[in-house]
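Example 3.2
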Amino acid sequence: MFKSILIVGFGGFIGTVARFLTSRYFQENIASVFPWSTFIINIIGSLLIGIFYGISEKGDFMSPDIRLFLTVGICGGFTTFSTFSNDAFLLLRQEEWLRFAFYTSMSFFLGLLAVYVGRFIIKLL
């Protein structure tokens, strides 16, 4: 169990740093009320988790420890539901109804689509 905690923790560190750097990039380069950084991060994370699980289901290409590191660790640290929820709340508080509807619905549907696409890409290989 301790080994799994270390694996997830190290992956989470990498994912969290990647999320911070990606968010910082969007904050410094895109002036918008729309929370682009969280939106893009969650879609990319969904695609990656689809790819990683697709690879792990395809055969013996990935050990359980590597899958844990990549999915729970890196993808778990990279994506964030709490930031998504806060961004959605801020849009509601600012009465940005259309942006709120777009952000929440597209995050959900594109996230699902990205997981599917990630798995589909691996099945084609």
